[in-house]
Amino acid sequence: MRRSAFFLRFIGIGVLFHLYVGVRLIPDAPVGLPLKVLAVILLAASVIVIPLGMAARQIEPQSLADRLAWLGLTALGFFSSLLLLTFARDVMLFFVHLVDWLRGVPIGSPALVAYSALAVPLLAVLLSAIGFYNARRRAPVVSVDVPIADLPAALDGFTIVQISDIHVGPTIKRHYVERIVAAVNGLEPDLIAVTGDVVDGTVPNLADHTRPLAGLTARHGAFLVTGNHEYYSGADKWIAEFRRLGLTVLLNQHVVLDHDGARAVIAGVTDFSAGSFDPAHRSDPAKAISGAPDDATVRVLLAHQPRSATAAAEAGFTLQLSGHTHGGQFLPWNFFVRLQQPFVAGLEKVGGLWVYTSRGTGYWGPPKRLGAPSEITRVRLVPSIPA
């Protein structure tokens, strides 16, 4: 019932936003009546297909659901840019008119009003095309050196390749995952970290598309922690499936690695919000490190959400690898991430804890990335230089 009410509010707000865009652009655009009628029809269609795309997971058969998802989510990505640019145009016109008023000249330039109304949808199309390319290409490799105090010599150069937030689902399928796995294996890492939100859908619908993950290869293996989307999609069944694929799933647990005579702890916690889905899965960094040997001073935590960092620092971890944020994925959402998370992307520090937040290896929702490129992250441990 609560979900239905939210969805109805989403549709209502969407209708209002479409009306705003239509009223602000269509009358001013320097085009003929047929094109204006077409614009009205396209906006009306957008009002319908966006909610259908968002709800496609509930639709059968799967092939129809995927097509609706592609259509609706692509439309959502385009409309997001259209709405933002329409608002930016209104702000620009306000200041132009204000300057005209202050100068005592006739307010408003008819040419500016007209051609800016035409420029907005054209620019939205261009940005959406660039964003689509960025989302659908294979994520590039980002290399990050993390300086560790008193790093054992054997662990100098120890390499972790992190992938996160692939979101296998309506628009991300097997071939997309195969390209990621090939790129990861090509880096020949010591360890692979999969930091959650691998899937958006059920095991029966997506098992074939996640199967390439069984091919991940590293000296010490591939480790996975759950993200919030695993809990939306049936976490227990997915945990069993990931283990069947050969991934080591860490549920508030750790393992001790022996790397050329040096020991390191690799721990993982369930998603920060997991306890609201299953109390037995409450995220607990202290539990994850409990019992770890004292001589293993390098302690790496895999935690889907960056906001696990405070508890991780208190528990004595050295490095936390996270995802979840997508780096905002596309404007303007990167400005809102910090309302929920302490970090958006990149390497940060909390006390003695390094935190690296991946922008994600796939995308969620609209196939679109602008200003927040996806990544396969190659993390290398290096000795810190004394101050």
Brief synopsis:
The protein is an alpha/beta fold.
Descriptors:
single chain, alpha/beta, Purple Acid Phosphatase, chain A, domain 2, 6-stranded mixed beta sheet, 10 helices, elongated, Metallo-depent_PP-like
Detailed description of the structure:
The protein is α/β, with parallel strands linked by helices and 387 residues long. The protein has 2 domains: 2-135, no CATH class; 141-383, Metallo-dependent phosphatases (Purple Acid Phosphatase, chain A, domain 2, 4-Layer Sandwich), CATH 3.60.21.10. It is 42% helix and 16% strand. The chain has helices at residues 2-25, 33-54, 62-103, 110-136, 174-186, 203-210, 228-232, 235-244, 285-289, 309-315, and strands at residues 141-148, 159-163, 191-194, 222-224, 248-249, 253-259, 262-268, 298-302, 319-322, 346-350, 353-357, 376-383. The strands form 2 sheets. A 6-stranded mixed beta sheet has the order 1-12-2-3-4-5. Strands 6-7-8-9-11-10 form a 6-stranded mixed beta sheet. Helix 10 links the parallel strand 8 (298-302) and strand 9 (319-322). Helix 1 packs antiparallel against helix 2, helix 1 packs across helix 3 (62-103) and helix 2 (33-54) crosses helix 3 (62-103). The mean pLDDT is 94.
